[in-house]
Amino acid sequence: MVFVLAAALWAVGWALKTPLRLRWGMILALWLGVVAGHLLLPAGHPLRMATGERAEVWLAVGVVALVAALYRAGLTRLKRRVAARATPDKPGAFRPAELERYARHIMLREIGGPGQRRLKDAKVLVVGAGGLGSPALLYLAASGVGTIGVIDGDRVENSNLQRQVIHTDARIGLPKVASAEVQMRALNPFIEVRPYHRDLTEETAAGLLAEYDLILDGTDNFDTRYLVNRAAVAAGKPLIAGAIAQWEGQVSLYDPARGGPCFECVFPVRPAPGLVPSCAEAGVAAPLPGVVGSMMAVEAVKHLTGAGASLRGAVVIYDALWGETRRITTKPRPGCPVCGGHG
């Protein structure tokens, strides 16, 4: 009788085009009702007599059905995995989740679908995972830059957390590149992150920079800045460099391969010792690196997508204390020992 009733419920559900999940729910409710009747009604009750007298039979039926359902679900999941491996994504193709994620970019006339594809195909190296590197790395990841390298030999310290927003208190002691990788992957699982836990050196700079399309320099010492510039010029790579001190920051795109000056064209002589103190020596307003690092990320997105006018041949200086921004035009310096000044 129970099986006839179950078949009738299934047939009615099919005729009414009831969702499959709801039909199985009705069958489950019927099974639970029969089991409850056997457990709660006294022996010899007509309902128990009409449904096999013993609850064990129906419990066994439920176990068999559960095993069959689990087997079917596991088999379906396995088939999906095999199908996914057999039909990998086309290079550069966007998954539906990516299209939704980058919809606000794609809506921009200056970026659109082609620009977002260029971001996905791009490789960007960020030198330094500190105050400037933190926001730059986060926004490059959020923007969908497909491959992001980050090189830094330092570890996260408590004093970093006032301004280096990519790191957390729980990751104090970790290499900065490892901490940055965790945060970037958490933000965007569709990108590739390449962490390099070491300092940039003369021996490694040329080979490393040659692997990338664009370089961002967020370091805080002039030795590394000049080294990055030399390696970028030698590799023919554009360089976006930022710097901060106390309340002021600056950013520019150095690209002598495309007619702009290099970093050493604009800053041919290093400042005298003590003239430009580091953040550790003179302090820095916590949000300032966020502003300048975000400007670096914006310039990177513009350069990679071809949107707007870049900062090639210009330096933007931001004075946070007085809320002022200045733009200074720069030119190649004839006789520059690094890029030649196009002369």
Give a short overview:
It contains 14 helices and eight strands. It has helices at residues 2-15, 20-40, 46-50, 55-86, 96-101, 103-106, 112-121, 133-143, 176-187, 202-209, 222-235, 263-266, 279-282, 287-305, and strands at residues 123-127, 147-151, 192-196, 214-217, 239-245, 248-254, 314-319, 324-329.
Layout of SSEs?
Blueprint lengths: L1 H14 L4 H21 L5 H5 L4 H32 L9 H6 L1 H4 L5 H10 L1 E5 L5 H11 L3 E5 L24 H12 L4 E5 L5 H8 L4 E4 L4 H14 L3 E7 L2 E7 L8 H4 L12 H4 L4 H19 L8 E6 L4 E6 L14
Helix pairs in contact: 1-2, 2-4, 8-9, 8-14, 10-11
Query: What is the chains' assembly state?
Result: single chain
Count of alpha/pi helices: 14
Mean pLDDT over the full residue set = 85
Radius of gyration: 31 Å
Bulk shape: elongated
Q: What's the story with the biggest beta sheet?
A: 8 strands, mixed
Report on the structure:
This protein is of the alpha/beta class and 343 residues long. About 2% of the residues have low confidence. The relative contact order is 0.10. The chain is built from 14 helices and eight strands.
